[in-house]
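chain below, 349 aa
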Amino acid sequence: MIPVTVLTGFLGSGKTTLLARLLRHRDMGRTAIIVNEFGEVGIDHDLIATSDESFVQLSNGCLCCNVRSDLVLTLGELAARRDAGTVSAFERVVIETSGLADPAPILHALMTDPEVAARFALDGVVATVDALTGVRALECYGESLRQVALADCIVVTKTDLAPAAGVEQRVRSINPDIPVLHVVKGDIAPSILFASAARAARLPAAGSPAAAMYWSAEASHSGGIGSISIVRHRPVHAATLALFVSALADNCGPDLLRMKGIVAVVEEPERPAIIHGVQHVYHAPAWLARWPSADRRTRLVLIGRRMRTSWVQELLDLLDAEVADQLARCARPQAGNAAAATTRTLDGA
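prediction:
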């Protein structure tokens, strides 16, 4: 599978500078770049030094719902050209969105299109936030809020021109456990950036339900977007996962922007399940080969509007209790039949 990193961020936040600097690094030699610009005349692609054979420009608008099919076609064409040997055998794809893009439809395309999913895998979402104007952008523009809410890693740019503390605090009020990297003029090693995003995309940080944060008081500043954390000490049944994800999709809809979690499962005590979703689209659970640390608790992070810790916790508990009850009901007749068969055998003897 070829990993795909989505690079997003509001207008003027330093995405193109970051990408241009990354491409000078020798570790980026086998990377294909897709740049999406808003408007009929593209400029950003001329500011990025990269070979034409690994570069694709989409300039017919933001990569959102109405042109999402263009991304699917582009990735399909890149894969076909790679197979035919007409482009270098790239090992990663970076998609730079326009500053006004909502990343969710891009993630939906990567997660749901079967041909794309057969060759490409989402490896993380990186969002740039400007230390100079980032706080204002988050207060005034819903696009900026959604970019931060859907990100797996934040890069605070222009930290040589303004202190990063204010914007970092604001970012964490939306997405509290997210890794935050400080960068001057795009100077960061690709390995650090991609590893931070990929790990955060899969493994939510350990948290405490008692410490979960609520944003109702900040609704006027955050657009009502906030994060909650769920920690469960008891493992859940495998069947609970599908029911839980379906219930979230049905009840939360577009209000749930992002969900990720590492889950302890009764049937697989040595292997945790990873669940991941964007709005109403969810990956099938993936299984790690082993627990990554000594912490074997179920940990879930949900980012969206009007999220309530108590409701999510009760939903998971109720669904798992129902599954456990159904499993017990199925097991009881079998035990009864086995006892009856034993009685008949003894009587016959």
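The longest strand covers residues 120-130. The radius of gyration is 23 Å.
thats it, cya
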